[in-house]
Amino acid sequence: MSQTLTVNAPLTAADGELLTVKLARERRNKQLKAVALVAPLAIFLLLTFLVPIFMLLGRSVDNPEVVTHLPATSKLIASWDRRALPSEDVFQAMARDLTAAKEDKSVPEVAKRLNMDISGFRSLIQKTARKMPLELAAGESMRDRFIQIDERWGDPDHWHVIAKNAKSWTPYYLYSSLDLRETKAGTPELAPEEERAFISIFGRTLWISFWVTVFCLLLGYPLAYWLANLPARKSNLLMILVLLPFWTSVLVRVASWIVLLQREGLINSALMNLGIIGEPLQLAFNRVGVYIAMVHILLPFVILPAYSVMKSIPPTYMRAAISLGDHPFAAFWKIYFPQTVAGVAAGALLVFIMCIGYYITPALLGSPEEQMVSYYVAFYTNVTINWGMAAALGSLLLIATMTLYAVYSKLVGANKLSLG
C-alpha cells in the first residue's frame, strides 16, 4: 500500500482557516489597538502643540485688513501699472468700499494697517471715510473729489501702499522683524540706520544667551563631576539641593534676587559691613543681575544631563590610564572628557534654547538695554495688540531654535560616526 505525501501544503489553524491569513489578521488587530492607545496623545499634541505653531507661522504673514474691508479696490488696483495715479474706476471702488466700511465700523482696522507703512495714513483714511458717501458735481470725477478732500490722495506712494497690501498675505511683519522694508519693486532692503532696532535686539538676545550658557557650563561641569564621584548617599543628598529650585516659582526666585542684589540689599549690606566696599555696587537692574539670576535658574539643566552621563562612565577607565603612566589631567582630558561631551552638549543646547526665549528675568532684573526678543513679543501682544509683529518675532525665535537643534543633531551624528 503506497502513501502519497503532499508537498508544500498550506498550513491551517485548528478551525481550518489558513494560518497566514489568521496571523495577518491578528497582526492587524494588534496594530489597530496600538494606534487606538496612542491616538489620544497624538490628538492632544496636535491640538496643543502643532496647531498653535502653524497658526503662529500663518499669523506672521496674514494680511486680511485691506482685502477684507476694501474688496473692490483690492481687485481693481491689482492691474494698476504703478506709475501714475490709479484709474477713475479705482477711485470709485475706494469710495464704495469706504462707505461700506463706515457702515460696518471697520475703518479703524484698515487705517491701522495702512498706517504701519506710511505714518499719517490713519488720519487720511478716517478723514475720507467721514465724508462718505460722496456726491459729485456735474463733470467732477471721483479722483478730483478725493484730492479735494486731501491732497495726499494725489500722491502715488499712498496708492502703492494700498496696492502692496491688496493681498491676503504679506512679508511686512517678517521684514520688519529683521529691520528690512519692502521697496516699490517688492524686493527687501535694509531700513535706514535710525529705524533699525530688531537686529540689535536679536544680537543682544544671542549674546546674553551665549554667556549664560558659558557660565552654566563653567559652574555645572565641575559640580556634576563632583556629584558623580561622591558616595551614593552624599551624592543623593546634594542632588536634592540641585533639584530644589525646580520646586520654586521662577517669579519668586527673581524677586528673591532683587532683594539680594539691590543697592540696599543683603549682599551690598554684607560687603559694606565687612569693609570690602565703600559704597553699594549696582548689581540689580543691569546685565550683572540678569546674568546672576539666569545662571542660578538654568544651572540644573546643565548639571543633570552631565551628571547622568558621568555616572555611566566606569571609574576603571581613569585608573587604567593613570596606572599605565598617563598624567591624571591628561587621562581626564583624553579618556573621561570625550565621553561626557554628548551630555554636556545636550545641557548647553537646552540652556541656550531656554535663554533665547526668556522673558520674566530680564524684564524684572534688567534695564531697557537688557530686554530680549520675548519681551517685545509680549509688548506687541499685550500693549499694541499687533499680532502680526508678535507672531513674526515668535516665528523667528522658533526658526532659530529649530536651526540650533538641527545643527546639534548633525554634530552629534557626526561624532557618533567618528567614534564608531
CATH superfamily of the largest domain: MetI-like
What fraction strand?
under 5%
Which class best fits the helix and strand makeup? mainly alpha
Count the E strands.
Answer: 2
The portion of residues assigned to helices is 55-70%
Helix-strand pattern: HHHHHHHHHEEHHHHHHHHHHH
**End-to-end gap:** 65 Å
Overall shape: it is flat
**Unreliable stretches covering 5 or more consecutive residues:** 1-5
CATH topology of the largest domain: MetI-like fold
What profile does the largest beta sheet have?
Answer: 2 strands, antiparallel
Give the CATH class of the largest domain: Mainly Alpha
Task: Give average pLDDT, whole number.
Answer: 87
Number of helices: 20
CATH architecture designation of the largest domain: Orthogonal Bundle
InterPro entries: MetI-like, MetI-like_sf
Family: Belongs to the binding-protein-dependent transport system permease family. CysTW subfamily.
Organism: Vogesella aquatica
Keywords: Cell membrane, Membrane, Transmembrane, Transmembrane helix, Transport
What are its keywords?
mainly alpha, two-stranded antiparallel ribbon, 3 domains, 420 residues, 1% strand, MetI-like fold, 20 helices
Write a structural description.
By secondary structure, the protein is an all-alpha fold. The chain folds into 3 domains: 12-45; 65-167, no CATH class; 198-419, MetI-like (MetI-like fold, Orthogonal Bundle), CATH 1.10.3720.10. 68% of the residues lie in helices and 1% in strands. It has helices at residues 19-59, 64-69, 71-77, 88-103, 107-115, 121-130, 142-149, 156-164, 172-177, 198-229, 232-243, 250-261, 266-273, 287-298, 300-311, 316-323, 328-356, 360-365, 373-382, 387-419; strands at 180-182, 188-190. The protein has a two-stranded antiparallel sheet. A hairpin with a 5-residue loop joins strand 1 and strand 2 (188-190). The chain is flat. Residues 1-5 have low confidence and may be disordered.
